[in-house]
Amino acid sequence: MYQKLLNKESAIAVIGLGYVGLPIALEFARHFKVIGFDINEERVGMMKNGMDPSKELDGSAFHGTDIEFTTKVEDMAKANFFVVAVPTDINEHKVPDLTPLLKASESVGKVIKKGDYVVFESTVYPGCTEEDCLPIIEEMSGLERNKDYKFGYSPERINPGDKERTLTTILKIVSGGDEESAEEIDRVYSHIITAGTHRASSVKVAEAAKVIENTQRDLNISLMNELAIIFDKMDIDTQEVLKAAGTKWNFLKFFPGLVGGHCIGVDPYYLMHKSKQLGYDPQVIAAGRRINDYMPAFIVKKLVQMLIQRGKNPSECKVLVKGITFKENVSDIRNSKVATLIKELMDYSVTVDVVDPHASPREVAHEYKIDLTENISSNYDAVIVAVSHTEYQVYGKEYFSSIMVNNGILIDLKGIYGNGKMEKKDFEYWKL
């Protein structure tokens, strides 16, 4: 298969062209013939014009690529190597929502042929590829795994907003349903990943490795968040504590904050779901999730208490929230815990203005029913800097004084104005 792809006798089809799918489709297309498939016609139209809808890649990323963008499943019939990179989310009950993944498997099943390969990149629980996805492909195609077609799993490791650790410079885990498929899949990915590959012993091992990457980070951050809650009650600066503790060579440097997005705040639920199916109710993972999910409410409660201490009625107060994307310098608003924080504020009848230079007003309104503010005023009782966008890091005390009433409150969730930057101020400064 690898040699056929290299000779462009066969093509690679990438299903799902979001943060994960588009970068890998374009990188493959520098070496192989590629068909990029997505169900969103507007996004596909933008990509045909050399634009990344996620605003992660500039126009030059499309130059010198052999790629055809399409929304038609039948166009993928020209491919022989399928890469599934659709999102995996959770529903309102925090249960894995496999709908996009199962729909993608159905699409592959309609066009896959004998001798073809399919590789999944979407984050799932161990066993999902073989137990949930492949049966759909086989039902649609009438083919048998390992005999008629080959399969594998190579989890994505895209880090949105990171301009240093890009796709080709991050070591890639690869795996296959048998030795032959593992070897061929490894050769295909090794052709584009300069950092090299790690071949997992099985698809389940590769699935498990991916899901615990983010589960581990989730738990470490939850510890920092719990420490922040405790130290706040003790009137101790959490950042100063972490700075001091970080002088020990083996202290792991994590920091408190909102845990959202489509990875860290979601993936642990996949592992928990599978564990419960097998009869074990995970304790540590669940505790970490509870703490991180509680943080928006904790922050809002703290702000409301501070307002009341100043003799202010929260329902008569006006608060500016700066940043609603799930992390700095990206446009992605999926599973943003800032949106949860905003709704918590609104539950106290606080008037809230929201701004973000990276977020799409249309997407925010559609996803959260929140309207972004075009022009900020100068009479806020409090300002919450929720995301450390580069644009926000240059602000000083003069700026915040200019947009707040006397005796205002600055909430700095990422601690970007620490280290004495807000001394001699006419407002109170609080950070996690």
Characterization of this structure:
It is a single chain. Helix content is 38%, strand content 15%. It is an alpha/beta fold. The strands form four sheets. The chain has a six-stranded parallel β-sheet, with helices on both faces. A five-stranded parallel β-sheet has the order 12-11-13-14-15. The longest helix has 31 residues. The protein is elongated, with a radius of gyration of 24 Å. The mean pLDDT is 94.
Jot down its keywords.
single chain; 432 residues; alpha/beta; Rossmann fold; 2 domains; 6-stranded parallel beta sheet; 5-stranded parallel beta sheet; 13 helices; elongated
Summary, kept brief:
With 432 residues, this protein is an alpha/beta fold.
- The CATH homologous superfamily of the largest domain corresponds to NAD(P)-binding Rossmann-like Domain
Give the class-level CATH name of the largest domain.
Alpha Beta
**Individual helix count:** 13
CATH architecture of the largest domain: 3-Layer(aba) Sandwich
- Helix and strand pattern: HEHEHEEEEHEHEEHEHHHHEHEHEHEE
Q: Into how many domains do the coordinates divide?
A: 2
- Termini Cα gap: 52 Å
Q: Identify the overall geometry.
A: elongated
Strand order in space, largest sheet = 3-2-1-4-7-8
Q: Tell me how many strands there are.
A: 15
Structural class, by secondary structure, is alpha/beta
CATH topology of the largest domain: Rossmann fold
- DSSP strand (E) fraction? 15-25%
Main sheet properties: 6 strands, parallel
Helix content bin:
25-40%
| Unreliable spans | none
Q: How confident is the prediction overall: mean pLDDT? A: 94
Over the alpha carbons, how many angstroms does the gyration radius reach?
24 Å
